[in-house]
Design goal:
alpha/beta; 8-stranded parallel beta sheet; 3-stranded antiparallel beta sheet; 13 strands; about 15% strand; N-acetylneuraminate synthase
């Protein structure tokens, strides 16, 4: 396994800070200025990338109101797929100004394509990477086409079983993808944290010999921060200006201050992992003197016996280590020792 990949010059892997993707998705709510605003907030919060979704209602489904195309229950209850995606899609003519805005802000931008025509559009815009959404992980021809661009690829695995994940990874690698991150994901909107099974992140990395990360649809940051300890090197979260904005994805998205906290806290979690270490750290060195040690707590005259009444284990730590207590008690002082003296072997007969 490659232990790192690179998107737009930013290295991603266990030896680098977590890569944070702010998923804009449908949270533009039909207004390109709202999309620009989300991008600005993502940059301000410290996200590494903004991600779009490139499809239209015509490319992702068809205009049909038969039962199979109806949505029952959940956030989008009562709509047909065509109606949902007609309102949610990112107009293709927005892509160029959005890419230009990202360059102006200095934030990486790429997208999830949902068919070959989306890949063509994104190639024209020189997208630096591609994301395969969970619902498309079974679309092996799409994965093959994306792999043929030679760009880094991120694959989400929501709903996919082990065999389907293996097929997607094999297709990507066989078709030329050399830089791949596979994201553990639960495709619920929102997804309950207790169904996330984060231990799968480390298993994906080991089982499939890939870098692994997390696509997180929970409504806070606890799951994402925890995932860092299990090896996630990339986190993707939906981002909005207002969770109550009424858009298709707003209700399970992070608001700007929450995104800022995610960027900060995942980096802190990564830094805290460090390495296996039993040595004293720099932060501890100044405090060694406050550990316990053996002190004379009553004056002891030369020839007098050290007893529990005149020797105690107390702070600070300038005397003999407490492990010598039993060795000291019952022996005689070879000099006068004043109360408050750190006990030393040279005071003992």
């Amino acid at each position: 396994m490659k232990n790192e990949i690179s998107i737009n010059g930013r290295k991603i892997g266990p030896n680098h800070p977590p890569y944070i993707i702010a998923e804009l998705s449908a949270n533009h709510n039909g207004d390109i200025n709202r999309a620009f605003q989300i991008m600005e907030e993502a940059k301000k919060a410290g996200a590494d990338a903004i991600k779009l979704q490139t499809y239209t209602h015509e490319t992702i489904t068809m205009d049909c109101d038969s039962e199979e195309f109806q949505i029952h229950g959940g956030l989008w209850d009562g709509q047909t797929l065509y109606e949902l995606y007609k309102g949610a899609h990112m107009p293709w003519e927005w892509h160029k100004p959005l890419f230009e805005k990202a360059r102006e802000l200095g934030i990486t931008i790429f997208s999830s394509p949902f068919d070959f025509s989306a890949v063509e559009l994104l190639e024209e815009l020189d997208a630096p990477a591609y994301k395969i959404a969970s619902f498309e992980v079974v679309d092996l021809p799409l994965i093959k086409r994306v792999a043929q661009t030679g760009k880094p690829m991120i694959i989400s695995t929501g709903m996919a079983n082990q065999e389907e994940i293996a097929e997607a990874i094999k297709t990507a690698k066989d078709s030329g993808c050399q830089e791949l991150v596979v994201l553990h994901c639960v495709s619920g909107y929102p997804a309950p944290a207790d169904q996330y099974n984060l231990k799968t992140i480390a298993d994906i990395a080991e089982r499939f010999d890939v870098l692994s990360g997390l696509s997180d649809h929970t409504i806070d940051n606890a799951t994402a921060v925890t995932s860092i300890a299990l090896g996630a090197c990339l986190i993707e979260k939906h981002v909005t200006m207002d969770r109550n904005g009424g858009g298709a994805d707003d209700s399970f998205s992070l608001e700007p201050l929450e995104l800022q906290a995610l960027c900060k806290d995942t980096k802190t979690a990564w830094q805290a992992l460090g390495k296996v270490n039993y040595e004293r750290t720099e932060a501890e060195k100044g405090n060694v003197k406050f550990r316990r040690s053996l002190y004379v707590v009553k004056d002891v005259a030369e020839g007098e016996v050290f007893t529990p009444e005149n020797v105690r284990s107390i702070r600070p730590g300038f005397g003999l280590a407490p492990k010598f207590y039993d060795e000291v008690i019952g022996r005689k002082a070879c000099v006068d020792v004043k109360a408050g003296s750190a006990l030393r072997f040279e005071y003992i007969d």
